[in-house]
Amino acid sequence: MDTKELLKKVRKIEIKTRRLSDHIFGGEYHSTFKGRGMTFSEVRQYQFGDDVRNIDWNVTARYNEPYIKVFEEERELTMMLMVDVSGSQLFGTKQQFKKEIITEIAATLAFSATQNNDKIGLILFTDEIELFIPPKKGRSHVLRIIRELLEYEPKSKQTNITEALKFLSNVMKKKAIVFMLSDFIADDYQQTLKIVGGKHDVTGIRVYDQREEGIPNLGMVQMEDEETGELLLVNTNSKKIRTNYSKYYQDRVDYFKDSFTRSGAGSISSRVDESYVKKLLGYFKRRG
Q1: How far apart are CA 179 and CA 176, in angstroms?
Q2: Fewer CB within 10 A of the end CB, N or C, for the chain?
Q3: Are 80 and 123 in contact (CB under 8 A)?
């Protein structure tokens, strides 16, 4: 992708996702993810209905009339986007690849955080940590994140969610809002997720394609494993093969749901041809 085409793509995603975050998600995000507490802002004259517990007695004595302390929510939070860039994200049978939907969701979340003056960081992972961008504020920082999501070429095609979660624990010492975006076709991450979920506010967003749920009966078909690159000749006429694959896939989905529930973390599942906007809004409203 040349620079001109890349900038065009970044701009297109910014326009679409910025509009969503401005009009839909800004307020929902703010009410869902609260700040660390209240911080003193100013004093003003007491008005009928104010909480008498907030009266500033020193200022009241000085001016001989009641004044109260005004507090504001101490908002500054950090959002970490953890994005799976393994080979399976390049699967797509509808209008878009999983990778494209994941990029849009990540950009929407990043702009929602920016609207609330929060910091945003990025971890791109496969079975290793591919890229880490430390949390910062601002539009230009979000545009850099979108640029990396669009053009980064991963070194590996495989997935290791446990390693990604361990890395997060090592680099994020303070509590963060964490969104992990993947198809979660993996296992053995529940224990690590429990530890991370005890410290951070974690949400798993599973993006999947309907065609991944089962193998259609098409006779002898050559298939490539996106993560290993292995070519296999598969007899899709075989009911046993189709049943075994469906069971394997469903087991991964059940493991995802069970792991996030047991860890006290949130979870969203969104098919590539569904509205991720409705899914995110529903999730924010349930949590808010």
Answers
A1: 10
A2: N
A3: yes
